[in-house]
Amino acid sequence: AQSVTQPDIHITVSEGASLELRCNYSYGATPYLFWYVQSPGQGLQLLLKYFSGDTLVQGIKGFEAEFKRSQSSFNLRKPSVHWSDAAEYFCAVGARGSQGNLIFGKGTKLSVKP
Amino acid sequence: DAGITQSPRYKITETGRQVTLMCHQTWSHSYMFWYRQDLGHGLRLIYYSAAADITDKGEVPDGYVVSRSKTENFPLTLESATRSQTSVYFCASSESSSPNSPLHFGNGTRLTVT
């Protein structure tokens, strides 16, 4: 069965520092992988996605993620965090041939120190 | 503006009452989804719909009923609300069945069952 693990419930970084949010998935084949961001009181917004090809994918707001098959990971990175990046981040996995039904991780809340 | 809207934003109801959460999208997307978001669980799929008059269960369907008489609307009904259904509910839509098609989320309905 598919599953997604985000090991860090809450991360605090200083503004301007680099960021890496971890995501590990369990799936028998190459999955579809997503990162979503949720600002307080809002719905989720797609940051980036991976389906195939180049394992380093670029997203909106300066985020990128790298797919590592050997580690079953899809970690999200940003070189320099801005205060507006404070939000909750969700990794999700979708199965090929599914009905668009994603499995979400439990989320990582990001706080940014001035 | 085009998009996906949920109503109400906040709802308080009593145990045993019936309550309906509304979801409306203006993109004519075929697929619509209902998720619930709970602390420590991330997002879990309740029901989804591939088209008008076609619905199917997700991970946590018990206690919920959905209908889809029109493509743009996908209401979620709690027939007899329980405290365990206190949650934030998100509606989402996508253009196609492929996970390649991103989910577009509403801003959520916060439901409290007393």
Outline of the structure:
The complex is a heterodimer of chains A (114) and B (114). Chain A has 114 residues and is mostly beta strands. Chain A has strands at 3-5, 10-14, 19-21, 24-26, 32-38, 44-50, 56-58, 64-68, 73-78, 87-94, 102-104, 108-113.
Protein described:
- The complex is a heterodimer of chains A (114) and B (114).
- Chain A is built from no helices and twelve strands.
- In chain A, strand 5 and strand 6 form a beta hairpin.
- The mean pLDDT of chain A is 91.
- Helices cover 0% and strands 51% of the residues of chain B.
- In chain B, the strands form two sheets. In chain B, strands 2, 4, 5, 6, 9, 10 and 11 form a seven-stranded mixed sheet that branches.
- In chain B, strand 5 and strand 6 form a beta hairpin.
- The model of chain B has no long low-confidence stretch (mean pLDDT 92).
- The chains are: A mainly beta (114), B mainly beta (114).
- Chains A and B meet through strand 5 and strand 6 of A and strand 5 and strand 9 of B.
Instruction: Tally the beta strands of chain B.
Output: 11
| Spatial gap, N to C terminus of chain A | 41 Å
Number-wise, the strands of chain A total 12
Point out poorly predicted stretches of chain A. Answer: none
Tell me, rounded to a whole number, the average pLDDT of chain A: 91
Shape of chain B: globular
Distance between the termini of chain B: 34 Å
Oligomer: heterodimer
Main sheet summary of chain B: 7 strands, mixed
Query: Treating each run of at least 4 consecutive H or I residues as one helix, how many helices of chain A?
Result: 0
Q: Which range does the strand content of chain B fall in?
A: over 45%
Q: Which key phrases capture this entry?
A:
heterodimer, A: 114 residues, 6-stranded mixed beta sheet, 4-stranded antiparallel beta sheet, B: 114 residues, mainly beta, 7-stranded mixed beta sheet, 11 strands
